[in-house]
TrEMBL record:
Class in the EC hierarchy, top level: transferase
Annotated organism of origin: Candidatus Roizmanbacteria bacterium CG10_big_fil_rev_8_21_14_0_10_45_7
Name of this protein: ribose-phosphate diphosphokinase
Pfam families xrefs: Pribosyltran, Pribosyltran_N
Family named by the database record: Belongs to the ribose-phosphate pyrophosphokinase family.
SUPFAM superfamilies reported in the protein's UniProt record: PRTase-like
GO CC terms of this entry: cytoplasm; ribose phosphate diphosphokinase complex
UniProt keywords, alphabetically: ATP-binding, Kinase, Magnesium, Metal-binding, Nucleotide biosynthesis, Nucleotide-binding, Transferase
CDD domains: PRTases_typeI
Keyword Kinase: yes
Residues covered by the Ribose-phosphate pyrophosphokinase N-terminal domain: 5-120
One GO term of the biological process aspect: purine nucleotide biosynthetic process
Source species taxonomy: Bacteria, Candidatus Roizmaniibacteriota
Alphabetical list of InterPro entries matching this protein: Pribosyltran_N, PRTase-like, PRTase_dom, Rib-P_diPkinase
NCBIfam families assigned to the protein according to its UniProt record, in alphabetical order: ribP_PPkin
Amino acid sequence: MQSMTYFAGNASPKVGEAVSARHGGTLGKSELVRFANSEIKVRILQEVTDTPCVIIQSLSNPTSERVLELAFYLDALRREGAASVDVIIPYLGYARQNIQHLPGECVSAHVIISLIESLGARSVTTIDIHDEATAGVFTVPFTNLSALPLLAHEMKKTIAVEHTLVGSPDQGGVERARGFAEAFYEGGTAPDLIVIEKKRNLEGVHDSQAVELYGDVTGKDIILVDDVATSGGTMLHAAQLCLDKGARQVYTAVVHADFGEGIIEKIGNAKLFQGWYTTNTIEEPSKKLKAYPLFHQIGIDSLL
């Protein structure tokens, strides 16, 4: 069987290099051309005829450009005669827009899935998709991996399990927090989860407020678990509520660091978190994260 050739989009060069190296190869040669009118073009720079290929690309900020880049890679590889093209999307942007919250809205996640499939992707793999129900939209083989066990095992190295409670910063993330807890308390008995009730303003953008906490956090270390953070508001409000209710200190485990402008600084200066653990599914913020000791970024290439 012919070995895979891996390509990485501009959003995921380090993950692409690490995954390709794990499989004993180097990244395929390609280029992204930018024109003065803001258009882009992808070009494959090596022979791929009859070769099975993989393209690795997170759909992260600038999200719409990353989507087009992935689409152009798919088209270019198929035009060059690739035997097949499998797609790895470490962070599936637009996945939170998977239902109509308000009348008249598009369902962006379905549009992205239709685009990828229409361009001939043989399969799609992602990490911690926002809502697992979205898997049912795909008509090609789809795999949703989880990085939460990676984060749990990393955090166990420095956080005492016996003094720690795991929680969800909103009601919708309970199963996600439970999955993290299974790995964090592996071999032991997991205490009940704490859950924070969040009220969201659907007319606003990144507008939510923690209103109630269920569980006793007095004197405990808390790990708040979520799939993605953009504005940081959910975690900031949840952490403050835990501390107000008597928690000793708060940590977070967030898979995707999809931070908006100025959010890393906002979190880093808030003095609410003892540690913030994330992955490199989104590579862009790596340099800024290193400026604050509380951030820890874990590589996801072992999952792939």
